[in-house]
Protein backbone atom coordinates (compact mmCIF):
# COMPACT_ATOMS: atom_id res chain seq x y z
CA UNK A 1 0.00 0.00 0.00
CA UNK A 2 2.87 2.34 0.90
CA UNK A 3 4.57 1.74 -2.48
CA UNK A 4 1.31 2.38 -4.32
CA UNK A 5 0.81 5.60 -2.36
CA UNK A 6 4.35 6.83 -3.10
CA UNK A 7 3.95 5.95 -6.78
CA UNK A 8 0.64 7.81 -6.94
CA UNK A 9 2.21 10.79 -5.18
CA UNK A 10 5.08 10.86 -7.71
CA UNK A 11 2.64 10.72 -10.63
CA UNK A 12 0.61 13.60 -9.21
CA UNK A 13 3.80 15.65 -8.69
CA UNK A 14 4.91 14.94 -12.26
CA UNK A 15 1.52 15.98 -13.66
CA UNK A 16 1.64 19.18 -11.60
CA UNK A 17 5.13 19.99 -12.91
CA UNK A 18 4.10 19.38 -16.51
CA UNK A 19 1.05 21.62 -16.08
CA UNK A 20 3.23 24.31 -14.54
CA UNK A 21 5.71 24.15 -17.42
CA UNK A 22 2.89 24.26 -19.93
CA UNK A 23 1.40 27.25 -18.14
CA UNK A 24 4.76 29.07 -18.16
CA UNK A 25 5.18 28.30 -21.85
CA UNK A 26 1.71 29.64 -22.57
CA UNK A 27 2.42 32.82 -20.63
CA UNK A 28 5.66 33.32 -22.59
CA UNK A 29 3.83 33.14 -25.91
CA UNK A 30 1.40 35.88 -24.91
CA UNK A 31 4.06 38.52 -24.29
CA UNK A 32 3.82 41.43 -26.76
CA UNK A 33 6.79 42.21 -28.95
CA UNK A 34 8.93 45.24 -28.18
CA UNK A 35 7.60 48.58 -29.35
CA UNK A 36 9.67 50.04 -32.17
CA UNK A 37 10.76 53.64 -31.58
CA UNK A 38 12.50 54.83 -34.73
CA UNK A 39 15.39 57.26 -34.41
CA UNK A 40 14.70 60.89 -35.23
CA UNK A 41 17.70 61.10 -37.56
CA UNK A 42 17.47 59.99 -41.18
CA UNK A 43 20.93 61.07 -42.31
CA UNK A 44 24.21 61.70 -40.51
CA UNK A 45 24.34 65.31 -41.74
CA UNK A 46 20.94 66.08 -40.19
CA UNK A 47 21.93 64.83 -36.74
CA UNK A 48 21.24 66.92 -33.63
CA UNK A 49 21.95 65.58 -30.17
CA UNK A 50 18.82 64.71 -28.23
CA UNK A 51 18.66 64.62 -24.46
CA UNK A 52 17.97 61.27 -22.82
CA UNK A 53 17.45 59.68 -19.39
CA UNK A 54 20.66 59.74 -17.38
CA UNK A 55 22.05 62.88 -19.03
CA UNK A 56 23.47 65.48 -16.68
CA UNK A 57 22.34 68.96 -17.70
CA UNK A 58 24.02 72.17 -16.65
CA UNK A 59 21.22 74.74 -16.71
CA UNK A 60 22.34 78.37 -16.51
CA UNK A 61 19.78 81.11 -15.93
CA UNK A 62 21.32 84.49 -16.67
CA UNK A 63 21.47 86.80 -13.65
CA UNK A 64 19.80 84.12 -11.52
CA UNK A 65 22.51 81.83 -10.12
CA UNK A 66 20.20 80.68 -7.32
CA UNK A 67 18.05 78.76 -9.83
CA UNK A 68 20.95 77.58 -11.99
CA UNK A 69 22.75 74.27 -11.46
CA UNK A 70 23.28 70.69 -12.60
CA UNK A 71 20.27 68.41 -12.97
CA UNK A 72 20.01 64.75 -13.97
CA UNK A 73 17.31 63.61 -16.39
CA UNK A 74 15.22 61.00 -14.58
CA UNK A 75 14.41 57.55 -16.03
CA UNK A 76 10.98 58.91 -17.02
CA UNK A 77 12.71 61.53 -19.19
CA UNK A 78 11.82 64.52 -16.99
CA UNK A 79 13.79 66.95 -14.83
CA UNK A 80 12.92 69.05 -11.82
CA UNK A 81 14.69 72.40 -11.42
CA UNK A 82 14.69 74.86 -8.56
CA UNK A 83 11.42 76.51 -9.62
CA UNK A 84 9.85 74.10 -12.10
CA UNK A 85 8.90 70.45 -11.65
CA UNK A 86 8.49 67.52 -14.05
CA UNK A 87 9.71 69.22 -17.21
CA UNK A 88 9.78 66.77 -20.18
CA UNK A 89 13.40 66.71 -21.39
CA UNK A 90 14.03 63.40 -23.16
CA UNK A 91 13.94 63.58 -26.94
CA UNK A 92 14.53 67.34 -27.06
CA UNK A 93 17.59 69.29 -28.14
CA UNK A 94 19.24 71.49 -25.48
CA UNK A 95 17.94 74.58 -27.29
CA UNK A 96 14.36 73.28 -27.33
CA UNK A 97 14.51 72.46 -23.64
CA UNK A 98 15.99 75.89 -22.83
CA UNK A 99 12.99 77.59 -24.45
CA UNK A 100 10.59 75.38 -22.46
CA UNK A 101 12.34 76.20 -19.19
CA UNK A 102 12.27 79.91 -20.02
CA UNK A 103 8.51 79.69 -20.44
CA UNK A 104 8.14 77.87 -17.11
CA UNK A 105 10.39 80.33 -15.26
CA UNK A 106 8.62 83.37 -16.72
CA UNK A 107 5.94 82.78 -14.09
CA UNK A 108 8.48 83.68 -11.39
CA UNK A 109 11.19 85.64 -13.20
CA UNK A 110 11.10 88.56 -15.60
CA UNK A 111 12.27 87.59 -19.11
CA UNK A 112 14.53 84.68 -18.05
CA UNK A 113 17.34 83.70 -20.39
CA UNK A 114 18.35 80.04 -20.17
CA UNK A 115 21.27 78.17 -21.72
CA UNK A 116 21.94 74.45 -21.38
CA UNK A 117 25.11 72.42 -21.71
CA UNK A 118 25.40 68.67 -21.27
CA UNK A 119 28.03 67.18 -18.97
CA UNK A 120 27.37 63.44 -19.35
CA UNK A 121 26.05 62.21 -22.69
CA UNK A 122 23.69 59.21 -22.78
CA UNK A 123 20.81 60.11 -25.09
CA UNK A 124 17.44 58.39 -25.60
CA UNK A 125 17.41 54.64 -26.25
CA UNK A 126 16.06 55.30 -29.74
CA UNK A 127 19.24 57.26 -30.59
CA UNK A 128 21.79 54.78 -29.21
CA UNK A 129 23.64 52.15 -31.23
CA UNK A 130 23.39 48.65 -29.73
CA UNK A 131 26.02 46.00 -30.36
CA UNK A 132 25.10 42.45 -29.31
CA UNK A 133 26.61 39.01 -29.81
CA UNK A 134 30.31 38.29 -30.23
CA UNK A 135 31.74 41.72 -29.51
CA UNK A 136 34.39 41.92 -26.81
CA UNK A 137 32.20 44.29 -24.80
CA UNK A 138 28.60 44.18 -26.11
CA UNK A 139 26.95 47.43 -25.14
CA UNK A 140 24.86 50.44 -26.12
CA UNK A 141 26.98 53.23 -27.57
CA UNK A 142 25.92 56.88 -27.58
CA UNK A 143 25.84 58.10 -31.15
CA UNK A 144 28.17 60.86 -32.29
CA UNK A 145 27.81 62.78 -35.54
CA UNK A 146 29.41 61.00 -38.53
CA UNK A 147 30.03 57.85 -36.48
CA UNK A 148 31.03 54.83 -38.55
CA UNK A 149 31.15 51.08 -38.02
CA UNK A 150 34.86 51.29 -37.24
CA UNK A 151 34.23 53.87 -34.49
CA UNK A 152 31.62 51.65 -32.86
CA UNK A 153 33.76 48.50 -33.04
CA UNK A 154 36.62 50.36 -31.36
CA UNK A 155 34.18 51.44 -28.62
CA UNK A 156 33.11 47.81 -27.96
CA UNK A 157 36.65 46.42 -28.07
CA UNK A 158 36.42 44.64 -31.41
CA UNK A 159 35.44 41.01 -32.05
CA UNK A 160 35.86 37.96 -29.82
CA UNK A 161 37.89 34.95 -30.97
CA UNK A 162 34.63 33.13 -31.70
CA UNK A 163 32.97 35.83 -33.81
CA UNK A 164 31.87 35.46 -37.40
CA UNK A 165 32.40 39.12 -38.22
CA UNK A 166 31.66 38.78 -41.93
CA UNK A 167 28.23 37.34 -41.18
CA UNK A 168 27.23 40.25 -38.94
CA UNK A 169 23.96 42.07 -39.56
CA UNK A 170 22.94 45.69 -39.17
CA UNK A 171 19.26 46.22 -38.28
CA UNK A 172 17.86 49.66 -39.07
CA UNK A 173 14.35 51.13 -38.94
CA UNK A 174 13.47 52.78 -42.25
CA UNK A 175 10.01 54.21 -42.88
CA UNK A 176 8.68 52.32 -39.87
CA UNK A 177 10.01 48.93 -41.02
CA UNK A 178 13.03 46.91 -39.97
CA UNK A 179 15.62 46.36 -42.66
CA UNK A 180 18.76 44.24 -42.46
CA UNK A 181 22.14 44.78 -44.08
CA UNK A 182 25.17 42.50 -44.09
CA UNK A 183 28.35 43.78 -42.47
CA UNK A 184 31.93 42.65 -43.10
CA UNK A 185 33.44 43.49 -39.74
CA UNK A 186 36.23 40.91 -39.94
CA UNK A 187 37.45 42.32 -43.26
CA UNK A 188 37.39 45.80 -41.73
CA UNK A 189 39.17 45.01 -38.47
CA UNK A 190 41.50 42.13 -39.27
CA UNK A 191 42.39 42.94 -42.87
CA UNK A 192 42.03 46.71 -42.93
CA UNK A 193 39.49 46.74 -45.74
CA UNK A 194 38.25 50.32 -45.40
CA UNK A 195 35.58 49.66 -48.06
CA UNK A 196 33.86 47.56 -45.38
CA UNK A 197 33.46 50.64 -43.20
CA UNK A 198 29.96 52.13 -43.35
CA UNK A 199 28.15 55.12 -41.88
CA UNK A 200 25.93 54.37 -38.91
CA UNK A 201 22.82 56.16 -37.71
CA UNK A 202 21.16 56.55 -34.31
CA UNK A 203 19.08 53.50 -33.40
CA UNK A 204 21.13 51.01 -35.42
CA UNK A 205 21.51 47.49 -34.00
CA UNK A 206 24.57 45.39 -34.86
CA UNK A 207 24.23 41.64 -34.37
CA UNK A 208 27.48 39.62 -34.45
CA UNK A 209 26.96 35.84 -34.60
CA UNK A 210 29.27 33.10 -33.35
CA UNK A 211 31.32 31.27 -35.98
CA UNK A 212 30.68 27.59 -36.70
CA UNK A 213 33.92 25.65 -36.46
UniProtKB/TrEMBL annotation:
Location relative to the cell: Cell outer membrane
Keywords: Cell outer membrane, Ion transport, Lipoprotein, Membrane, Palmitate, Polysaccharide transport, Porin, Signal, Sugar transport, Transmembrane, Transmembrane beta strand, Transport
Membrane topology: Multi-pass membrane protein
Domain Polysaccharide export protein N-terminal: 44-118
PROSITE patterns documented for this protein: PROKAR_LIPOPROTEIN
Domain SLBB: 129-208
Any Pfam family hit: SLBB_2
Signal sequence interval, chain numbering: 1-28
Keyword Transport: yes
Keyword Lipoprotein: yes
Main location: membrane
Similarity annotation: Belongs to the BexD/CtrA/VexA family.
Protein name according to UniProt: Polysaccharide export protein
